[in-house]
Amino acid sequence: MIGYPGFSLLFANGSVIQHPATRDGAPYRVAQLKPGQRAQFIVRTVDGSIAGTGCSTSWKTAQVQVYPPNQTHSIRQPSTIAACDMTVSPVSVI
Question: Cα 27 to chain center, whole Å?
Answer without folding.
Answer: 17
